[in-house]
């Protein structure tokens, strides 16, 4: 068994652009769920809008990178308004139902053959990376060392992705320690009490929904840049992975989603490498390689369960808070 | 109003609170005119299915006084509070606060006008610190705007001022030592105190308290009473719901009695208890099990009323 390769691949995930994308999407959910108490089960929909908004803008309309970026962000603001206007005045569970359904509608719209010329239907889209690669100031060659060695494109993408994550984390950290963040956390605790103190709760919830959604959308763009845009990537399971990451790291924290995403991807890569090789080596004779690739999710699930059992507030959560959770 | 000076309690030479009198015009009857009303309610009705929870023809709340809203369980007091503060919508009716019509105005705006309420079931924001609870009560904070939130130098000074004001109020409510604790760690009575102190952060003109004494440890009752009296001393108007008749008689300047959604009596706290309509309301000419009366509470009311009538003689 090639342990070196397994650990090497796992370590590489620590700073991969995909890990950054999941971290950013989880940060958006932290704004929604951890800080505001909004049950958004449609984060995959926001990510899909980012990925498709970016890809379609470039492929169909020939937009520059910044234009494609703005199209994705604009689409998610509109999506948040459509979700929020009818539901944010209602009880919290309505938002959960509407978001999970709306995200599926978005995915199915991108999957249907009706718009195949623009969306690529079930095959999705590719060939939109050149515009981003053209902005790369790095010369060709390899950068980094050991498990973190990459070609120029991946290095450039990694730098951009993690810079965005760091900026977003600083942004969320700053607003959550401001009076704005105090109102948001108050709404999570009891929105009627906050209303009684003269705050326009509906407007704050809408701002939170838009903000977290835009973070999810940018995450969707980062997620799309190392691969192709395929509609089946944006199923509800994606939202649940993001929730797993959030709870793993700590829901009402800024570092939690980032470290949670790192733990998630390192574990996933480790188990996937380990199982694939274990099957090859005949250690798991009852299993095929395909079954093995499913098993990794089970093992990640077990690992997350263990962390949540022994550290229920998440890695960065405050233990004191948990004493009062009803 | 300055919060830096703790006003002397408005108690007379006998140690009893000084009552504000001469509040009404004409007979003290349901819906009677007040010399200077702050809240004027007209034809407010709210039904839940077949049940008429509130059906108030006309009622006025006098300014600068402490008015008690009493009545048996299910009389519609909380529902009336919810309607007047924009937390519920009536089937019909309108009302003015400080001369301004506010029917249909959303709750947060009602609060900004200076009409602040507390809840029967205390709403301390558990996972916020006591200090953050207080700061949330302050009005017109520029840092509550998402974009200005990013630039702390725009709101730091205001935040510091609000903290000083909050600490002052917390000291008066004897919660200053808890300022960095989660509100969830407070006792029930301390949460009531916090909710009241938080309401004061906005310098309200009318404070509406829904059962401020319910579930409060008797050791804290006196201090809560003093705080309510203090509000009046600082020029605020108080409207509160209460079951404890002794307390009502002790601090209220005016009493409005509700039963089955209607205002059935009004008057000076000493006089109103003798009103047959009030005795009826409590002792029940109605024995409707449907309205969900709590038999234990009913017994309590009966004993409270008889006790009071004895006191009066
Ligand atoms: N949301 C509601 N749905 C149905 N019935 C309600 C609702 N709120 C209050 N009621 C009913 O309205 C009546 C008045 O209730 P409430 O205002 O809470 O009385 P009080 O505060 O005087 O005890 C009660 O019979 C109660 O059961
Ligand atoms: Mg009530």
Automatic annotation (TrEMBL), chain A:
CDD domains: TM_PBP1_LivM_like (cd06581). It is found in: Cell membrane. InterPro entries: ABC_transp_permease, LivM-like. Keywords: Cell membrane, Membrane, Transmembrane, Transmembrane helix. The chain crosses the membrane at residues 20-39, 46-63, 69-88, 95-116, 156-176, 209-230, 262-279, 291-310. One of its GO terms (molecular function) is branched-chain amino acid transmembrane transporter activity. It is a multi-pass membrane protein. This is Branched-chain amino acid ABC transporter permease. It comes from Cryobacterium melibiosiphilum. The lineage of its organism: Bacteria, Bacillati, Actinomycetota, Actinomycetes, Micrococcales.
